[in-house]
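Researcher: Quick sanity check before group meeting.
Model: Go ahead. Protein one:
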Amino acid sequence: MSKTKTSKSPKPALPEPLPGLPFIDVHCHLPLDFSPKDALPSPNAQYEEFIQLGGLYLISSSIDWKSLGEIRNFASRHEFMGFTCGWAPQTVTFTASNIYADEWTHWIEYVTTHPEDFLAIGEIGLDFHHAKKIAAREKQVQEFRKVLQIALDLKKPIVLHVRNPNANYIDLQNKDHSFNLPDGANRVILEILAEFHVDPRNVMWHCFSGPPVYGPQLSKEGYWLSVPSSAWGFPMWARNTKEVPINNLLTETDASFQHPWRPGPINVPANVRYAIVAIANTHQMPQEDLARRTVQNAITFFHLENKVRKAVT
């Protein structure tokens, strides 16, 4: 377990990860650091710890043009690491209008001319938590359609960020709008994916946030769902995929977010082991078996054959 310079919080009663587990973190943001100053080890130290503890491959997700450059440069210096090209819904909502068009131009030029560099398009999607007004959500829908078409044109896997609104994040001036429903973002995403005839087997719902009833439905259709390390200490994350077959599950940290049991952006990629424990617990199977199967799932979805490090036995 990585040590951080943060106050201690009580641990849940679940077992600790067994030593020697193989694992892949399919979604983090290394080397980006959203944590308080000096709360985390350096990005290089985080990568080294990941490998030393049994990590076979690490995938970092960009969210905009700036983060793409930082992640791409870092990944180029680390053998067992790849990256995805994202245009996150938060980017759509919060980027100042005077720089949005310029950054979009740079991003689209890179992804369409260097498809061999990256593993997938994502994270992309809808975030109805951060975008509270209907107009802002409609803007996210518009941009999602654009990026989705790019992913399809490039024949790349798709990594989704889908966050529904809760009762405190609805547009009070448009209370009856369908975007305000507890599953409003899910509904729109699925409608668009169907409209574009997207193959569910090429789509991963990163850090799947439910509602839980969607887990069995999505997996039955062939979608992949990624379980964050926070599922170890926060039951809602584990509950969302309790009824999902192992063949549809992947493991991630979303680091530096989604710490196994502490609040705040203080997570590291090596903590993906806690996602393995959480899934093993809900599905009542040995950690070793779960680890091997989720590793193979990651290899299959991201086409990582001949890229991953050989597991130490």
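Researcher: Fine. The other one?
Model: Protein two, sequence then structure:
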Amino acid sequence: MLPNASAAEIELHEIRRKIYPRAVHGAFARARWGMVLLTQAVFYCLPWLFWNGKPCVLLDLPARRLDLFGSVFGPQDVLYLGLLLAIAALSLFAFTAIAGRLWCGYACPQTVYSEIFLWVERAMEGDRFARIRLDAAPWSLRKFRVKALKHGAWLIIALWTAYSFVGYFTPIRELGTRAVTLQLGAAETFWILFYAFATYGNAGFVREQWCKRLCPYARMQSLMFNRHTLIVAYDRRRGEPRALESSPAGKRDPRLGDCVDCSICVQVCPTQIDIRNGLQTECIGCAACIDGCNQVMDKLGYPRGLIGYTTASSLQGKRRARP
């Protein structure tokens, strides 16, 4: 370690270590997957829906027109687009000030596709410790087969996602016919390959690095948060001092807190932060740590809520915590 280097500089130049998020089950995991299914159902199905014989949503760039559920908008209607974007931006800022990073944790495309790709990875390679062992093992026929199947599935998802995306600019049935007959235009071919590569790279490899280092929205969080913003937080008053559980439920030393230092909250975190260290910019508010901690509390017979959605003022006792 460099003697004069700050912690931020050390983190900036540190070689990235691969993160292996552990699978977690619970109410928030179900809500997250509910958003995955909802957003992808809309995204994949909308190009196939027709209204009065025309696609419900089609942005025809050569014709400079937008077909939207039977209505047609042209360049002269750009004012509506500006108003829509302004309303969306202000709504996002207001929502963030009230509810924190729920967009990042549940609906952001980076989160959604990372969840999908992680599900494929777990299905092919196993959960956290199985994936760690597989990556550490020397190359073999089995390892090659498992890795090839995983990347093949990733590529199929990425290509279908790219095909659906371009289907918003070219009628998707016409696009499919031209793709099968190898008659795609240069622009359509480029955008399908580009979007597929972006999906494959971001969801398969970049993952948490986008949220931690690249996303401009994440950098703006401190400007939109206040003491009453909903955040994921650890209750230090209840959890400290920590110690490993070594006695039956209900027999724990009363001088100890409820945190048993099992590190489950870290293992399930997609950005691999320790929420017990306080609010951090890397936290995307996905609540995986809440589900993981609640599972441990249930097994030990302790009340849930050691980690939960709350506010900074609630944690300091200035306001009653939200249910």
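Researcher: One line on it for the slide.
Model: The chain has two domains: 22-219, 229-314.
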